């Protein structure tokens, strides 16, 4: 599985862009309302994780209308990136997919149906992004992307980002430092 994800990521990185057969959208108004309500006040309707960035972005997408994808029999945890979900099981414990909570796995899941774009240039990312897209960050010298945020609003020369770990509703993309590469997943 790790090799599959790395191969998908490498292919997308080489091309700089990945175009799948289908695209989807989310309800931006609902997604923004969720981000506004829960960027500081965590939703008790979901479990909280340390390093919560991807979990929070998944919540925004789900509350914005992106359909969760469940396996036929709901395990407590699955690593198969074709699934994307966070759901209470019959025994009242949580079941979730790795793609709900892990940066690279969310990417692997979303690019099955969404278009991706990567660049080292912030201006290129800004020009290719739109409000509602997912953005991920890679540190210099790192093998993998390590952080996920959601694009709350696109401005003419900046993006305002929502996210957890450091809780923000409208963090300026241009003010973020310490990363060498970025990728967006078009929603």
User: What's the rounded overall pLDDT mean?
Assistant: 89
End-to-end separation: 25 Å
Structural class determined from secondary elements: alpha+beta
How many domains? The number is 1
Order of helices and strands: HEHHEEEHHEHEEEEE
3D shape:
globular
State the strand order across the main sheet: 1-5-10-6-7-8-9
Give a count of the beta strands, DSSP E runs of length 2 or more: 10
Protein name: Amidase domain-containing protein
Pfam families: Amidase_6
Domain Putative amidase: 28-182
InterPro entries: Amidase_6
Can you tell me about this structure?
The chain is of the alpha+beta class. The chain has one domain (2-185). Helices cover 29% and strands 24% of the residues. It is built from six helices and ten strands; from the N terminus they run αβααβββααβαβββββ. Helix 2 crosses helix 3 (53-63).
List keywords for this structure.
187 residues; alpha+beta; three-stranded mixed beta sheet; 10 strands; globular
A few lines on this structure:
Residues 28-182 form the Putative amidase domain. This protein is 29% helix and 24% strand.
Helices and strands in order:
Blueprint: H1 2-15, E1 17-18, H2 28-38, H3 53-63, E2 77-78, E3 86-88, E4 94-97, H4 98-101, H5 103-110, E5 116-119, H6 122-128, E6 134-138, E7 147-155, E8 158-163, E9 168-172, E10 181-185
Parallel strand pairs: 2-4
Antiparallel strand pairs: 1-5, 3-4, 5-10, 6-7, 6-10, 7-8, 8-9
Helix pairs in contact: 2-3
């Amino acid at each position: 599985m790790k090799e599959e994800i790395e191969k998908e990521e490498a292919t997308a990185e080489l091309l700089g862009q990945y175009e799948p057969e289908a695209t989807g959208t989310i309800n931006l108004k609902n997604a923004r309302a969720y981000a506004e309500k829960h960027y500081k006040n965590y939703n008790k309707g979901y479990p909280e994780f340390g390093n919560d960035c991807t979990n929070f972005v998944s919540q925004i997408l789900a509350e914005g209308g992106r359909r969760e994808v469940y396996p036929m029999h709901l395990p407590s945890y699955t690593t198969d990136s074709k699934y994307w979900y966070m759901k209470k099981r019959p025994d009242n414990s949580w079941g979730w997919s790795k793609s709900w909570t892990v940066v690279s796995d969310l990417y692997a899941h979303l690019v099955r149906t969404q278009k991706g774009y990567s660049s080292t240039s912030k201006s290129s990312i800004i020009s290719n992004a739109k409000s509602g897209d997912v953005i991920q960050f890679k540190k210099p010298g790192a093998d993998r992307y390590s952080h996920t945020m959601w694009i709350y609003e696109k401005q003419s020369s900046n993006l305002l980002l929502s996210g957890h770990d450091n809780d923000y509703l409208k963090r300026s993309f241009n003010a973020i430092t310490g990363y060498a590469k970025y990728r967006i997943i078009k929603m």
